[in-house]
Amino acid sequence: MYVGFVGLGVMGQPMALNLARAGTPLVVWNRTPDRCEPVRAAGAEVAASPSLVFDRAGTVILMLADETAVDTVLARGTPDFAARVAGHTVVHMGTTSAEYSAALRDDIRAAGGRYVEAPVSGSRVPAERGELVGMLAGDDDAVAAVRPLLAPMCRETFGCGAVPGALLMKFSVNLFLITLVTGLTEAFHFADRHGLDQRLLREVLDSGPMASAVSRMKGPKLLDRDFTVQAAAADVLKNNRLIAEAARKADLASPLLDICHTLYGETVELGHGGADMVAVLHALEARTDGTSPAP
């Protein structure tokens, strides 16, 4: 039985490549066809449309940018939706609101399909290495069937109960990630503007108790002002917004997240939305220099 994969972006393409290289019978589709070619070369079939992916595959993984893209691929809200998802397992690996995911589960169930929520923690490099961390939510039998499929993409997976437990867990993880990277970036900015040797700062951080895989990945990028994308600032802003909305709906305080939300908004407004999340450095520098777009 084929597995479908729809959405071959910064994260989706290396994830699909790992599936194909592991020997998974794979059929893929992407809105921009050129993104399919490396996966085709690794042995996957390329479908001409999302509907043909569902025709070929019993389980279809979606790694799409937003809710609109998911609805479009599933033909949700049209007469084609039920026929497309009936008898299929839909695995939603992208990041959307928890409310959207729960409603999608209900619609897929009503149409005779199964639904698994499976967001991942990690950026482009862990995706390339097959070292993502997966969070799974859904009916036990559906989760059990999907979990082995994720092995070529994820070094570990965790059950998070019922939908939308996996997305809420990812929001918790990303809250820490966003504030962590923003704090690291501010530390490099502070050292730079005090005339300190930033290489020495990196060495001190790498040798101390706060060192982590994240700091060791992002520190060299800050040192070299390398904004090549691993996790795009615009995507971080979207994640930040979703987490902030979830916090507001639960009447939770999130002061650190809220200032990060503002800073990533400024980063995107300055034209760095397609750069890596450490491009938040530009927003910090603009504030220091008095050129920030902030009111």
Q: What's the multimeric state?
A: single chain
What is the count of β-strands? 9
Shape: globular
Structural class by helix and strand composition: alpha/beta
Percentage beta strand: 5-15%
Largest sheet: number of strands, sense, barrel closure:
9 strands, mixed
Low-confidence stretches: none
Give the end-to-end Cα distance, rounded to a whole number of Å.
Answer: 55 Å
Describe this structure in words.
With 295 residues, this protein is of the alpha/beta class. The protein contains 14 helices and 9 strands. It has helices spanning 12-21, 37-41, 50-56, 67-74, 80-85, 98-110, 124-129, 140-146, 165-193, 198-207, 213-224, 233-249, 255-269, 280-289, and strands at 2-6, 26-29, 45-46, 57-62, 89-92, 114-117, 120-121, 132-138, 154-159. Strands 1, 2, 3, 4, 5, 6, 7, 8 and 9 form a 9-stranded mixed beta sheet that branches. Helix 10 packs antiparallel against helix 11 (213-224) and helix 13 packs across helix 14 (280-289). The radius of gyration is 20 Å and the shape is globular. The mean pLDDT is 96.
